[in-house]
Design a protein that fits this description.
510 residues; alpha+beta; Serine Threonine Protein Phosphatase 5, Tetratricopeptide repeat; 3 domains; 4-stranded antiparallel beta sheet; 10 helices
Length: 510
């Protein structure tokens, strides 16, 4: 036993081993932790996730609940496991031991035969056999009744979750993007909100079976404090993370077809940042956007995003000498075609295809596609006496407002749900810029609902492919950011990363 190693260090080592797929080492370390601290709720929860048999998982989850009876997630998993065991016991009776003959038939048939034999032998044996048969039937009836009760409880829980989702959406009156919008939205006061991040995040988000797909995350030691670190792919099924860019970058975005990736790359030499495109099949080497544009200078390039139909790249950038960023779009065909000779005007075909959508009178950032003809973005006009709001712009340049509260709340990083009904975004009060919370609002505008309100800075919400969850990052646990998932229908929060690294999620892909 490693008594000299602090439990906190053992916990980090155990979680790392679990994430890397070394379950035996992880179990050994977690077992040592609970041997030294039998009240360690998180270690018991991890042991439950690593257990190979339901009976063992049930024991560990009961230990979790003995420590913290309010751990709803542990109770939910325990209930599910117990229900599964009961159903398995019932179905075992219906297994065929020979074609057309179930174990139940054999049991009852054997019992009937035994009755016939003992009837011949003695009346007393008949009574005993009948009593046994009756007891067995009563047990089977009780098991069937319990299974029915369990099924009804599950149906009730599902109905309750559906009712919660319906209640959330009850005030929403979605209208097409770009339609006439209500005058404003008013976020519920966070000081009295009951919609809070759960006190006990799910330690088994990865590999739990609840979540599908992969997260694209900027993760590493942010020694410069710039937010530019290596880029990794974190599978939610429990497979080991995969690093796909080991230099300083941020905000990775995969194209809908999965053939291209764009990310913001940082140059330590110049202190500048620019977009870089990579071809996932390796058919071409990664290229800086500036190179593909024939040397066209655009500063502060950021937030590259592929249109849903995989035809256009949107991003934000500054013209040389400007203090404001603008929203740009460019057809992917212009970037993927072979380079063309310079024309008479000295610009390449790609540079000529580049289109600036906004006019430079405000700082316009964080573009995110609504559909293939509209973009969400954040307009900051505080320098000219205005405020910060989320706007919608068409690819032809028509702009409407999604939020219109000015500086009452400072919004950022909008993202449209897959069904086009809801927009998730972060927002903070002007007096507390390091305490963003996560909100959702109808795509047509209206009242925004507070989804995540933690003591930390909750930022960059991104929808899951099925629209049930949001992934986001938060520093609620300390100075570094970790990745979390929130269920938008129940507000339950689950933790994805457990490390001392800077972890900033940017996209959830299937």
């Amino acid at each position: 036993m490693s008594q000299e190693i602090p439990i906190a260090q053992l916990m980090r080592d155990a979680i790392t081993a679990a994430r890397e797929g070394d379950k035996d080492r992880a179990r050994t370390l977690f077992e040592e932790i609970v041997e030294r601290d039998d009240k360690n709720e998180k270690a018991w929860f991890w042991l439950a996730s690593l257990a190979e048999e339901d009976e063992t998982r049930i024991i560990y989850l009961n230990n979790v609940l003995a420590i913290n009876p309010a751990n709803e997630r542990a109770q939910s998993i325990l209930t599910s496991l117990e229900t599964r065991q009961k159903k398995a016991a019932k179905s075992a009776l219906d297994e065929e031991v020979i074609p057309g003959v179930s174990r139940r038939v054999v049991i009852y048939g054997g019992a009937g035969l035994a009755i016939l034999v003992v009837l011949i032998c003695a009346a007393l044996a008949v009574i005993i056999s009948n009593n046994n048969r009756i007891a067995q039937e009563q047990a089977s009836t009780a098991a069937a009744l319990q299974a029915t009760i369990d099924a009804r409880e599950q149906e009730a829980a599902t109905a309750a979750a559906a009712a919660t989702q319906a209640a959330i959406l009850a005030d929403f009156t979605p209208t097409p993007l770009g339609a006439t919008l209500p005058p404003s939205w008013t976020p519920p006061p966070s000081a009295t909100s009951s919609i809070l991040a759960t006190a006990t995040p799910l330690a088994t988000a990865i590999g739990s079976g609840m979540f599908q797909g992969k997260l694209l995350v900027a993760e590493g030691n942010d020694t410069t404090g710039t937010g530019f670190v290596p880029l990794v792919e974190i599978p939610l099924d429990g497979l080991p993370p995969r690093q796909f860019f080991n230099e300083r970058a941020a905000n990775p975005n995969l194209s809908p077809l999965g053939d291209m990736m764009v990310y913001t790359r940082y140059s330590a030499g110049t202190g500048e940042q620019g977009l870089e495109l990579a071809w996932t099949d390796g058919s071409r080497s990664a290229q800086l956007l500036s190179t593909l544009l024939g040397g066209r200078i655009l500063q502060k390039q950021d937030d590259g995003s592929f249109s849903p139909d995989n035809t256009v790249l949107a991003f934000s950038a500054r013209e040389p000498g400007s203090v404001n960023s603008d929203i740009y779009v460019i057809p992917l065909q212009a970037l993927t075609s072979p380079p063309q000779p310079d024309g008479a005007d000295g610009e390449t075909t790609a540079a000529q295809a580049l289109q600036r959508l906004t006019n430079g009178r405000a700082s316009n950032t964080a573009p995110s596609w609504g559909d293939s003809s509209r973009l969400l973005f954040v307009e900051d006009s505080t320098a000219t006496g205005g405020g910060v709001d989320i706007k919608i712009i068409t690819t032809t340049g028509q702009i409407t407002a999604l939020t219109t509260d000015g500086n009452a709340m400072i919004e950022g990083n909008p993202d449209l749900s897959p069904d086009g009904q809801l927009v998730a975004f972060q927002a903070h009060s002007p007096a507390n810029p390091e305490n963003n919370n996560i909100y959702i609002v109808a795509a047509g505008g209206g009242m925004a609902l507070l989804i995540v309100d933690s003591p930390g800075n909750d930022v960059r919400p991104r929808w899951s492919p099925d629209g049930r969850f949001l992934v986001y990052s938060s520093n609620r646990g300390g100075s570094n950011y970790e990745v979390y998932i929130v269920d938008v229908s129940t507000y339950a929060n689950y933790q994805v990363t457990f490390n001392t690294l800077y972890s900033m999620a940017n996209q959830w892909v299937p």
